[in-house]
Specification:
Elements: E1 2-6, E2 15-19, E3 29-38, H1 41-48, E4 58-59, E5 63-70, E6 81-85, E7 100-104, E8 108-110, H2 117-121, H3 124-137, E9 145-149, H4 154-166, E10 169-174, H5 180-185, E11 190-193, H6 199-205, E12 210-215, H7 222-227, E13 229-237, H8 252-255, E14 261-264, H9 274-285, E15 294-297, H10 302-310, E16 317-321
Parallel strand pairs: 9-10, 9-12, 10-11, 12-13, 13-14, 15-16
Antiparallel strand pairs: 1-2, 1-4, 3-5, 3-7, 3-16, 5-6, 6-8
Helix pairs in contact: 3-4
GO molecular function: NADPH binding; oxidoreductase activity, acting on NAD(P)H
Keywords: NADP, Oxidoreductase
Protein name: NADPH:quinone reductase
C-alpha cells in the first residue's frame, strides 16, 4: 500500500510517500480501507517536532474515513462505512495517511451515507472537536452569544455552523479582511477583523461581552478572548493555530478576569456519538447543514496540502481523497 511516512521532524519534504506492507489487525482491532482523510494541525505539530508522545518513524494521520476491510473478531461486517479518529493514531501507532489503516474497534464510528467520500472525510475530527467544545467545553445554549477566535479555520467554521444550529449568535474572527465575506456567507452574525485585539470591537456591539468564547488561535490571543467575555461567562481553550499553547509563569488570579470561567477541550472518537455524526451527515445530504468549504488533494500532493495548511492559504477543511 501507499502511505505517507515521517522519519524525522522538519519541513514538508520530510513527508515521504512510500510503499509499505498492508497491516494486519489483531484481536480487538480492525483494518479500514481508507477512502479519504482530513488534514489537521495536530499532524503539522507532529511534523514540526512540537507534539509530545510521538514515536518515529510514523505514518501520520489522526483520522480516517473508509470501509471495514478486515475484522478478525467478526463484529463489524466487511464494507461497513466507518470513521475513526484519535486514540494514538499517527502518534503511537500508524495513522490515516495511507491506503489502509489498523485501529482499535472501540474507536470506530459506523455510518451510512451516499455523500462523496471527501465530504464525509472532512468531518470526523473537526465535527467531534467542535461538538465537544460547544457542549462539554462551553455548555452553549440557544439565545447565547459566542466568539470564535480563528473563525476561518475548518474547526472555526464547523463550530460556527453548530452554534448557529443551536440558536446562538456568533461572532468570529479572521486576520484577513478579504475573508469577512466568507464568514458572513457561512452564517456568522458578526465577522470581525483580528489585529490581535478584538475585545473592544465585541464590546461595542455587546457592552457586557459575549456569553462564551472559543479559543482556537492559542495562548497569544487568549487574554483578549477572555477580555471579550462577560463576567460569569466561559472561555474554552481548544485550538492552537498559532502553534503556541503554554502560558509562561501562569498566575491565575492576575491572568483571569474576575468571575470568568476558563475550560479546555480535547476529545476522542467516543466523544462523537454515532447518532450525532449520522444526524449531521443526513442534514448535509439534504442541504440543511454545511460545515464549510472542503479542498481536496490526491495522496501524492500531501506536501502541497501541508504547505497550504501551514501558510494559511485556505479557508475550511483540507482533505486527501484516495
Amino acid at each position: 500500500m501507499r502511505a505517507v511516512v515521517l522519519e524525522e521532524p522538519g519541513p514538508v519534504d520530510r513527508l515521504e510517500l512510500k510503499v509499505l506492507p498492508v497491516p494486519e489487525p489483531g484481536p480487538g482491532w480492525v483494518r479500514i480501507k481508507v477512502e479519504a482523510f482530513g488534514i489537521n494541525r495536530s499532524e503539522l505539530h507532529t511534523r514540526l517536532g512540537l507534539a509530545e508522545g510521538v514515536t518515529l518513524p510514523r505514518v501520520l494521520g489522526i483520522e480516517a474515513t473508509g470501509t471495514v476491510d478486515a475484522d478478525p473478531d467478526g463484529v463489524l461486517p466487511l464494507g461497513q462505512q466507518v470513521v475513526t479518529m484519535m486514540g494514538g493514531m499517527g502518534r503511537t501507532y500508524d495513522g490515516g495517511y495511507a491506503e489502509y489503516t489498523v485501529v482499535p474497534r472501540s474507536q470506530v464510528v459506523p455510518f451510512r451515507s451516499e455523500l462523496p467520500w471527501e465530504t464525509v472525510g472532512a468531518l470526523p475530527e473537526t465535527l467531534q472537536t467542535a461538538y465537544g467544545s460547544l457542549t462539554t467545553g462551553l455548555d452553549l445554549r440557544s439565545g447565547q452569544t459566542l466568539l470564535i477566535r480563528g473563525g476561518t479555520s475548518a474547526l472555526g467554521m464547523t463550530a460556527a455552523a453548530l452554534a448557529r444550529d443551536l440558536g446562538a449568535t456568533v461572532f468570529a474572527t479572521t486576520r484577513d479582511p478579504d475573508r469577512l465575506r466568507v464568514l458572513a456567507d457561512h452564517g456568522v452574525d458578526h465577522p470581525l477583523v483580528d489585529d490581535g485585539t478584538v475585545a473592544p470591537l465585541v464590546r461595542e456591539i455587546l457592552p457586557d461581552g459575549v456569553d462564551a468564547g472559543l479559543e482556537l488561535v492559542g495562548t497569544p490571543t487568549l487574554p483578549d478572548t477572555l477580555a471579550a467575555t462577560r463576567s460569569q461567562g466561559t472561555v474554552c481553550f481548544t485550538g492552537m493555530l498559532s502553534n503556541r499553547w503554554t502560558i509562561p509563569d501562569f498566575y491565575p488570579i492576575a491572568y483571569l478576569p474576575r468571575g470568568l470561567r476558563l475550560s479546555a477541550y480535547g476529545g476522542e472518537s467516543g466523544d462523537l456519538p454515532a447518532e450525532v455524526f449520522q444526524r449531521y451527515l443526513d442534514r448535509i445530504a439534504t442541504g440543511e447543514f454545511s460545515a464549510g468549504p472542503v479542498h481536496v488533494y490526491p495522496l501524492d500532493r500531501i506536501r502541497d496540502a501541508h504547505r497550504d495548511m501551514e501558510e494559511g492559504r485556505r479557508t475550511g477543511k483540507l482533505v486527501v481523497r484516495l
